[in-house]
Amino acid sequence: MEEPRGLSNSPQSPPHAETETPPLRVNRTRTGVRAKTDPSALNLDDPSLYLNRELSHLQFNIRVLEQALDDSHPLLNRLMFLLIFSSNLDEFFEIRVAGLKHQLALGNDSTGADGMLPRQVLGEISRTAHEQVDRQYRLLNEVLIPALEEQHLRFRRRDQWTPAQQAWVRDYFDDEIMPVISPIGLDPSHPFPRLVNKSLNFIVELEGKDAFGREGGLAILPAPRSLPRLIALPASCCADGYSEYVFLSSMIHAHAHEVFPGMQVRGCYQFRLTRNADLSVDPEAVSDLASALRGELLARRYGSGVRLEVADNCPEALANFLLKQFELEQSDLYRVQGPVNLTRMMAVLADVERPELRYRPFTPGLPKTLKKHDSLFEAIKDGDILLHHPFHAFSPVEDLLAEAARDPAVLAIKQTLYRTGAESQIVSALVEAARGGKEVTVVIELRARFDEADNLALASRLQEAGAIVIYGVMAYKTHAKLMHIVRRERGELRYYAHLGTGNYHSGTAKLYTDYSLMTAHEVLCEDVHKVFQQLSGMGKARHIEHLLHAPFTLHEQMVAMIDREAAHAAAGRRAHLIIKCNSLTEPKLIRALYRASHAGVECDLIIRGMCCLRPGVPGISDNIRVRSIIGRFLEHTRVFYFHNDASPEVWASSADFMERNMFHRVETCFPILDRKLAARVRKDLETYLVDNCQSWLLDSDGGYTKRELGDTAPISAQETLLYAYASKT
Question: What is the model's pTM?
Fold first, then answer.
């Protein structure tokens, strides 16, 4: 790939002179300027230097919603972004808001580095979330639905049904809905029911007497969970050339009176309750993690309420009644103009076959070295192989494991699994290897949030095949992405390893950007072997040569490398670092970056999601530029570049710059030792720095501003990398 003009030079070149001003450099701060004040005099604990984590998380979700307004994305993908915003917001309330509410309930007023009290944070979340949810529905109703209708994709509301559609809906209700729907009248013998987290329900006002002579009042009507929330109308009921859909909620509204024969339905209003869905397993009280998690998964469906969504026409008295039932406040109530469960509209993306309304397809590429060899082991022995997904195919990772499972020279395979799916090719290869008599050890993290059930299933499948399954370390999630293969070659044992920044999941490898390193480097493979020994044997790891390893050395060494860059700048040498990860929240790392900026280090941070560092503070962070790239692919790579006085280092990691990754998870960070591959990664990073199509710049007040094109040519980092690495066929 051609290096963009005006960027810093390759690792083998001499550093820029201080007087150079590269025309496309995003951060134009001069480097190598000695600090005018003693950095020890800075008060880096000042809460005003830190942005609140939860509010920064919410800002990321807003940037996702913004993509629905961006007509550079195809229409169906704009709808996808709007629905992803709903899904993200659900999880935000289930985990982050639920955590804050739990903290308040315990009377815990402790704060983070930003100094905001939990109640203050909840108030700001409520204000921002209400604004954005209202904006989301306006965008859906006023922009996307009309645009979809222009493309002959129509969502029919009840008052828009034709006579033929009314007849079809009536038949569907009688045949599919009525047999499985269960109304619940509210009276002393029928108390308010426990409703499943995020389920679609209706509160119904009734008048008259039922079959037992009881006066009408209120009833709850849960929508059958077995039925789709969005139903495609048959072609015979649609206008010529149109694909038309109706919502299950509309069908139930239209025929609610049939569920209560002999009574009058005065009102029927949809609502949805979001509950606390965080799992809590006490390591001191658990003897069997798998059994404990199975119990917690059931409890997740009925956690305490955190948010109530109701139809915008729901009377205030009924909304207040529901709030009281769920012990929620007015600030927890969200009135919406449309379905309360928008995420279920994802079904239309799978149903509609309109390639012109989606991103153009592409074929992931393969490095040339893989095409020269029939065996992946031979290819890896020739030199390290670095894949950049999804621009490069994920299949070499699967193929390496499949070849190892069949190869009689392979003696043992060890692997970590965090999110992969019980039916994946990765798991199938491990099963085949175990059944074939190889020593297969798999470290499965059962507590990967919302994938717990899948991980329990794949653990059972592997155990049945004869693999040794380990659930990691009780108090630390195993988040490292590692594979280790032992092979006998010419009478000696040789190691091969795979290290990655993302999960062993072929589906997300098509949607998330990640790096995969396949290597036979003797010392690096030995390091991986030592990590596995520590995970399975629980003993202290012997000296690890190249890998950085959380919770042991990663945080300390990251701070040291940032401080090393600051020392270079303080001595008048050029200093530059690039940090690309998903989130930056850990205070000690933030303080190290502030010290580096103060010393004159040029700090380019590419942080997709949460960022608690405040850029642009005079004398402290004015050498720091933070950008977030939001586009077709979810940016997921964790990769770090340090100029290091013209002896550059490039590292890739499974860890973000967060407290949980540094101190409460098993993570690895690995160097890119091959100089050509390291230079390639640096060019990739520099491509992100000049992106002016999908780049959002963090302001010092915590808001984000979309970078404007101005007079420059458009540069999309993701499109550039797609062109550079994907197959040209």
Answer: 0.90
